[in-house]
Every structure is written in structure tokens, then in C-alpha cells.
Amino acid sequence: MSAEEHSDKVLTLAEIKPAMELKGRVTKLGLFGAFVDIGAEKEGLIHISMLSREHINRVEDVLQEGQEVEVWVHRVDHEAGRIELTMIRPIQLKWKNIKTGMRLKGNVVRVESYGAFIDVGAERPGLVHVSEISTDYVSDPRDIVSVGDEVDVSVIDFDRKKRQIRLSMKELLLEIEPDEEVEEETPTAMEVALRQALNGTDETETVPETSTDSSQETDRKELDEILDRTLKHRVRTS
Q1: Residue 236 pLDDT
Q2: Which residues contact 162 (CB under 8 A, 6 or more apart)?
Q3: Whole-structure pTM over 0.70, yes or no?
Q4: What angle (nearest 5°) sits at the alpha carbon of residue 12, between those of residues 30 and 26?
Q5: How many structural domains is the chain composed of?
Q6: Are 222 and 169 within one domain?
Q7: Does 182 map to a domain?
């Protein structure tokens, strides 16, 4: 349930449920986190550990007062009247559901010299190694992707114990690249007749018609001369 659905009324603690998606405005920053107005009877708190899956040293590195943010409800403490929020999207892809070959959409959350980390909704971002980013050679992943980009990936491998997912962008690119078809040119009447003469065959092949009577007559004369010379040569050499 989004904040827009409650724009005309104040949310009560009873209406707020874990994993609910809300939009709010940062009202205050602290060493331990940030307070956010989500249109409820109480402001919610985002602990610094809930700002990102990556380690954050300072809240100011991520948020500023007055900033509009998208948050999810982490926990509601009814006795203390406290709402705990998170900016980390709840897990949408569980480990038990991950399979090799799966096609997923994700967002680039970090780029290193050896590859890019992609948030696909799992517990941890998956890694697209630099060799799996493109069908062409890539020296620096930053030349191809940037933080925030939405990309299509497929699962190459995963390790549940180590909580690692190996992804590929290249595999999907290889699938959509069309095979180049080599078009064979239709042989002319002269070429067909010459092949038959050289092969010593009497088989008749269908040849394309020429556009005018005059060109047909010229072709016949040239063809007769070629065939005559070819046959004489075969007689002399036999």
C-alpha cells in the first residue's frame, strides 16, 4: 500500500504493516539514522544500517533533510509507538527460487574494475563479471554500465552457502543477435549452360528470363560461341 492511497488521512499504527511500501520526506538526520514523515501519527526511523545493503559511514552521505524517499516498513512496535523503516527493498527473490538460466531485471548498484553488482531483488546483489558484460571486449565496466542503470541479466551460477550469484548480460545479447544469412546470387543463363558443358551433362536447369528480346538474342549468340569453343576443346583433349 502506497502513501498516495493515504494522502487525505493520517495512518494509524494499526494500519501500518511490515513490508508496506510508503513514500515520505526526511525531517531530521542523526548519527544513528534519519526520521521520515510518512503521513502517519508517528514519524518513522530509518536506522543507518537500513539505508543500503552497502556499508554506510555517515547518514549525510545518503540522505538530506527535506529529501523525498521511498521506504518500506521494517517493524512496528505498538507498545513503544515506534515505526522502524528501511530503504532496502524487501527480498523478492528467495534463494530457494533461484535457478541457473533464469532471466531477471535488475539495477546496477555498484561498479568495480572487475565487474558490476546488480540488485535483482535477492538477499544480495549478483555480480556480472567484466567478461560477461558484452559480446565485445570490455576493459572497464564503467564504459558500459553506471550505477542506477536497469539491465537484463541471466543467472550463470549461484552458491547458497556463500550467498553469491553470478550473472551474465552477454548471454542474453548472444541470443538476440540474428545470424547473418548469405544470399546466393541466381546464376545467369550463360553461367548455367557453361557449367553443364564443362560437366558434360545434358540436364536442363531453369534459368531466369531476361527482360527484352534483343538481350535474349545477344545472350544466345554469346552462349553458342562459348559452347562451341568448349566442346571443341573437349574433343581435342580427349
Answers
A1: 59
A2: none
A3: no
A4: 25
A5: 3
A6: no
A7: no
